[in-house]
Known about the structure:
Oligomer: single chain
Strand content: 15-25%
Low-confidence stretches: none
Number of helices: 7
Helix content: 25-40%
Amino acid sequence: MTNVEAALAMVANGMTLGLGSGHAAERFIAALGARVRAGLAVRGVPTSQASAALAVQAGIPLVELADALPIDMTCDGADEVDPDLNLLKGFGHALVREKVVAAASKKFVILIGPEKVDEKLVERLGQRGQLPVEVVPFALPLCLRRFTELGIGSDVLHDSAGAPYMSDNGNHIVHLKLSPIAEPAKLERQLRDIPGVVGTGLFLNMADTVLTENNGSVEVRNRK
Length: 224
């Protein structure tokens, strides 16, 4: 069994599902689409324009967030998972919408595939050295200054044309340069207190279940 198959086993007819972004979510969307074409009746709330396009291509009916509350279950990937199932997400640049949809869900399921599993299962968040943060364009100079005052280096993400990357929300993405984070909740408060910071890639106390696929088996971990 794969982690996608384990997640699909949690899906029941009539559910509304949050559809994450990134490679793990793409595999889930493709497999869910096959079930829909076979007769499963579900609706999806995508966390990005890319996921919406994949869902439409797969034949999954989509619904606006306002018409979906509460969402029954969201399936998404993560860039880091600590022993308490706290997450670091956002390397795919959809962190704010992912966090909104996760917060609107009764159950938040994370899929960790066999690729890079040793990098993603960490003792402390931030082990891979960066944390994505979404920032309002007007506030970018202030935010960069405040990050420096916190002793944190930062890089503004740019697109292939060399312009600052724009999220689906019309905001910029800044990658903060970090060592493993000793107090993630404290850092989250410090960052969110900066005017213009829309959201961070720290997903603390949000994941209910993590399905880790490795060596042909799936480990299921549930938040205590």
